[in-house]
TrEMBL record, chains A, B:
Limits of the Aminotransferase class I/classII large domain: 26-370
Similarity section: Belongs to the class-I pyridoxal-phosphate-dependent aminotransferase family.
Quaternary structure (record): Homodimer.
Alphabetized SUPFAM superfamilies for the sequence: PLP-dependent transferases
Entry keywords, A to Z: Aminotransferase, Pyridoxal phosphate, Transferase
GO molecular function, one term: pyridoxal phosphate binding
Pfam families, A to Z: Aminotran_1_2 (PF00155)
GO annotation terms (biological process): alpha-amino acid metabolic process
Segments forming a coiled coil: none
The protein's name: GntR family transcriptional regulator
Cofactor: pyridoxal 5'-phosphate
Length: 378, 378
């Protein structure tokens, strides 16, 4: 009497990690952007302003697809910042964050299909796809992103509907996909007839990275997913999709099923974009997180913990502990440190991997966290 | 390469009606609560206050299931106002409005199942259930609600998973379900092993109505769905479910798939409840809409348009025009009036029915709207 999703859904290891992280001193687990850097003054002002200027209109039902005012600001200001070449044949659909976007895309594309994902991949977005797929095939990830030759070998024998990738500041692996791989993925999508979900929530704070996969795509094979969670704040729940018009129209209609995107929050984000808040913050946030990441990298190297690909951006570093990561985790928690044992991000392997995050920890906490980690590994 | 939902989703007639309604003088189409009555001053204050008092915390990821602060306020203040007897074995799950709640419930319960609904029913919530069902069976509605004897005849021959009903201020039919039918539905659910979704978004402004179906339920057969859209404002996108613990836990986990419920909006609603805004508004809003409904009823009677069940609460009256309602609609739009031709709300019949709404129209507009409607019928 219950659907497959109802039967198979279970608590996300990221949620579990976060719950434990609240109870310890040093949090290298959380993927929440640093609260110290959230523009709360500007957000507060924006709520007041949109209500004063536009009145009750900002509190109506949202309609499906997103408020025109916000779509205009995304089109004119955010898309250039992201470096996406949006074609005339493509449309923007506003969503309640990137997670909601992926849920909508899973709901649209999948019904017991075969899909491919990076191994490891971000478990929470992946779940929305996995629970609607019959087979999910892991493709190994290396320092330059997904191993395209392994993907191509697979495609020669298996038909897939979707490929899901995180090209920048990968969660949990911290790597960026090289430009030539981005181009190659689009060629493969054409040749083997599948779609690509390009999940790119870190791009606004990623600094210089190769151009989006979408830019190599001329036939609407790539659906680009973005988010305001990192550049503004996740609690607003706002993101968007750029997709070929026919797909975008359907995704937009599917929003009638949940109508979950707050109207007033859409006006607030439109206002913040208009004021230039997003543009002003992009470089500052990149530098801020980059500096913390450097400290993490240096601290790990100091302790001889060197089994990782060096992240160029984002919040996450994936470290091979060369021991069962749950065992180390339990010892670390006792000593006051939380991180995320990364096995759940892997469809294959990953037992000794740990996801370390620099997003909320201070410089001192990162250094102390690595000390505890090192001690816990003995 | 597209799922069933992707294939079958289409534009809601309510959306279409609303789009046309924006272009004409008199709007008897919209189901949006009256903007003149939205507490925008209080909402603006609440945004400022939660940011000042709680800081960046109100802008974190929402987590699944809802913020504790809001759940506490719902438990202690809203549930008593709604007259729901929540059992200890039941839990509250916060959602992005009632529509999101129904989408989650559809996703949880249904996978090509057979369901029963009132005929007519609210098309937008119904869609989230229909698109996941193999068979949807319409049960006629009368002035005292669903015809339970017809439902029972059906249940003797067909196994259903779910029954979806709107017991108060029905959309589009305007009727309330009698208390004895509410009790009977729970008995039938026990006897024939199905669940009931009790969709009750109008209750906060419904005045005196029979107690919830849920109150007769001792075994968690009834899932109660509520919303803050009518009593506060729909643009906040907040509602909740009350369900048996095992179901509530699963629905809560399923929120990990979309994480679509804005964190700050949850704190804002918690603040507004704490301040008594909801309690202060309940009676005032009931009287306000009740008065407009009386004017609609009187105006229709004056013109000899008497084929309807008299609504006791809510926004909607379902009128039998005794002619094709789309024909009348097109004439009415030319003369400056919009309403919703109600055929799409019916699984069977309904060609001559019109949904008239008093939610946003003024008293004068209602009178003038009925005059135009009458003229358009000639």
């Amino acid at each position: 009497m219950v659907s497959r999703i109802g039967k198979e859904i279970e608590i996300s290891p990221v949620e579990l990690g976060s719950q434990i992280a609240k109870k310890v001193r040093i949090n290298l687990a959380s993927g929440t952007p640093d609260p110290k850097k959230m523009p709360i003054k500007e957000i507060k002002e924006a709520y007041g302003e949109v209500i004063d200027e536009l009145g009750p209109k900002v509190l109506f039902y949202p309609g499906a697809g997103g408020q025109e005012e916000l779509i205009k600001e995304i089109e004119n200001k955010v898309i250039p910042l992201l470096g996406v070449n949006k074609r005339k044949s493509e449309k923007i659909v506003v969503t309640s964050g990137a997670q909601h976007a992926i849920e909508l895309l899973g709901k649209y594309f999948l019904e017991n299909d075969t899909i491919a994902v990076e191994n490891p991949t971000f478990i929470e977005t992946f779940n929305a796809l996995k629970l609607r797929s019959s087979t999910t095939i892991p493709i190994p990830l290396e320092s330059t992103g997904i191993k395209v030759e392994e993907l191509e070998n697979l495609l020669k024998i298996v038909k897939i509907t979707l490929l899901y990738v995180i090209p920048n500041c990968h969660n949990p692996a911290g790597v960026n996909m090289s430009e030539c791989k981005r181009k190659k993925l689009v060629e493969l999508a054409e040749k083997y007839d599948f779609y690509i979900i390009e999940d790119d929530p870190y791009k606004p704070i990623a600094g210089e990275v190769p151009q989006p996969i979408k830019n190599f795509d001329e036939n609407g094979r790539v659906i680009y997913v973005s988010s305001f969670s990192k550049i503004l704040a996740p609690g607003l729940r706002l993101g968007f999709i750029i997709a070929r018009e026919d797909i975008a129209e359907k995704i937009s209609l599917m929003e009638q099923l949940d109508f979950s995107t707050s109207t007033i929050n859409q006006y607030v984000v439109a206002k913040l974009i208009k004021k230039g808040i997003i543009h002003n913050r992009a470089e500052e946030l990149y530098n801020y997180y980059r500096n913390k990441m450097k400290i993490l990298i240096d601290s790990l190297n100091d302790k001889g913990l060197t089994s990782f690909n060096e992240p160029k951006c984002g919040f996450f570093l994936l470290l091979d502990l060369h021991k069962d990561s749950w065992e180390v985790f339990h010892k670390a928690v006792e000593k006051g440190l939380s991180f995320v044992p990364a096995k759940p991000f892997f469809l294959r392997g990953g037992e000794t991997m740990a996801r370390l995050s620099i997003s909320v920890a201070s410089e001192e906490e990162i250094i102390e966290g690595v000390r505890i980690l090192h001690e816990s590994m003995k």
